[in-house]
Amino acid sequence: MTLHAAFTARRGDFDVIAELDVADGETLAVLGPNGAGKSTVVDVLAGTLAPSGGTIEIDGERVDTLPAERRAIGVCFQDDLLFPHLSALENVAFPLRARGEARSQTHVRAAALLARLAPTVDPRTSPSMLSGGERQRVALARALAPEPRLLLLDEPFANVDVSARTALRALVREVTAGFDGATVLVAHDPIDALTLADRVTLLEAGRQTQTGTPEEIRAAPGSVYAADLVGVNLFTGVLEPLPDGAARLVTARGAIIVAPQTRLDRIVPAVATLKPIDVALHAAEPEGSPRNVVHGRVEEIAIDGERARIRVDGEPPLTAEITAGSVARLRLTRGADVWASFKAVEVSVVLTEEEAVPGTLSG
Amino acid sequence: MRGRTPLPLAILAALGAVFVVLPLLALVIRAPWGDLGSALSGAGASTALRLSVEVSLAATMLSLILGVPLAWVLARSSIPGRSVLRAVVIVPLVLPPVVGGIGLLAALGRGGVVGRWLFEAFGLQLTFTMWGAIAATTFVSMPLVVLATEAGLRSIDPRFERAAAAMGARPGYAIRRVVLPMLAPQLAAGAVLAWARALGEFGATITFAGNLAGRTQTLPLAVYEARVTDPGGAILLSLLLVVLSIVVLVVMRGRITAAR
User: What is the per-residue pLDDT across B28-44, written as a single tens digit (0 to 9) for each?
Assistant: First the structure.
């Protein structure tokens, strides 16, 4: 199951040109700032906005000429758009009922899906009684209900508060990993794109500026914007609980301390991100006791106007963003000794193993 | 915070309240309560009451069947001349009902523009029939349904309809299962307003459908006729309408607050 889309679309005096190819079981993130044309891409794929040119093929079948209701797409909308007059169960059953299946069958399947994706939600509850995270879980179940060939996730974390986001990210990761069709994830938060997608395409002002794996884009950002957006520090490794309640992420090169993780009772695989702006640099070993201090040599200095990005070759390697003035004050040159520090709470952790979050998909 | 009410304001407010309450109170005072039994059990009164209920409910149904699609077109479609259509559709609200009746006569009367053809082709005649009373009443009631429904549709995020389509719902299914249920409070408010208006309809009905007991003589028409021949009976029939109206008001209060 694959998606091949190459189209142009116009909305008012704004136009978008997009070329998206997503393979079986692959997740492509469309990453861009607000107003870049992400929702236009979603609407064209979902069939609620007609493209002005081009084609969209799912599994080799042209769908751009089909009305929205005849495309085999599961959509998880931004703002979830759960129907307020239907219960959680009826919402999940809606795409099945709309396709003419009998209520007795649809409700059994919807209930099973709801139990797997949103086990804390009473199927009879009205969406208005649910939290943002629960609503998004119901919306995800609704998107998967018709067994779509293309899964379209439109900023699924936009209205979910931070505390529920980690668990929801793990759920989305799990759902997309177990999904055999193509997934398009629309995001404006680089952390979502980098941790959940196999490939990322950057959308700026209606044009794709760069497409590649998260590693490729982080290694060679194609523009200042790309560097800002995805130039975060990414750590992949295993997370182990510490006696004081915090946790330590051990990577192939060095370990970092991260904030306490709920329900962490054993070693689990995890991915973490850290924004360069949250990394401080020091010419000597910092006093006091920041949890994370990394000693290394300056590998690269890139100055862009008032800002400078410093690559520190340490354990683990880090990128810091400081002011151009600080570069002079710290007398940073290539090869100089430098100490980088950051707080544990600035590190965003995503657990990458299902069982670490109870009550989600099993098997 | 509640402030003190200035005296001139209080006097005018009291006058206003008396102005509304006095006629109702006078009806109660002047009613020949001794004749209550005979007046209400009489064939004329019960026939008029039954006809009023039937005509007003039929007109409300018709207003919903025709008015809701009209509101949908006004709120959601992009047909040319939409703003003109909206203005035209609400005209019956501001038109004197008797003018509406004359218009209906010219259009649907036996010699009317369309009525002549209806009579010649199908032998169908609306004037002097209950259907004529229903047509006249629908004419004045439907704009209330259109207004309430259109406002309701505008308050529903159109993305819900697009979401329904993206989830495999054909347009008809989306309207039935998503739009109409979400619209229920406003539909109910519009229907109750239309029903209240229909119950009191007089001018268009008497002009277009005539004043035939048992066929087109609804309660307001019966009151108007009894006014000369049986003033006491007219008061009792009026009180019956007051009671009916209060019932509508009580129902409406719940509905309208639910719609907000």
Answer: 999 888 888 887 777 77
Answer yes or no: do A48 and B181 touch at CB < 8 A: no
Mean pLDDT of chain B: 89
CB-CB under 8 Å, A146 with B163: no
Interface of A with B (CB under 8 A): 43, 46-48, 67-71, 73, 75, 77, 79, 81, 83-86, 94-95, 97-99, 142, 146
A280-332 pLDDT per residue, tens: 898 888 887 667 889 999 988 888 778 888 889 888 888 898 888 888 888 88
A 10 A CB-CB count for B230 gives 17
Distance in Å, alpha carbon of B152 to nearest chain A alpha carbon: 15
| Closest of A359, A322, A363 to residue A134, by C-alpha | A359
Q: What is the reported pTM?
A: 0.74
Measured CA to CA, the distance from residue B53 to residue B55 in angstroms comes to: 6
Q: How far is CA B188 from CA B136, B145, B193, B194, B222, in A?
A: 22, 9, 9, 10, 29
Alpha carbon of B153: minimum distance to chain A alpha carbons (Å): 15
Gap from A70 CA to chain B (nearest CA, Å): 6
Architecture of domain A3-228: 3-Layer(aba) Sandwich (3.40)
* CATH number belonging to the domain at A234-351, selected among 2.40.50.100, 1.10.3720.10, 2.130.10.10, 2.60.120.10: 2.40.50.100
Q: Do the Cβ atoms of B177 and A98 come within 8 Å?
A: yes
| Angstrom distance (rounded) from CA A158 to CA A188 | 9
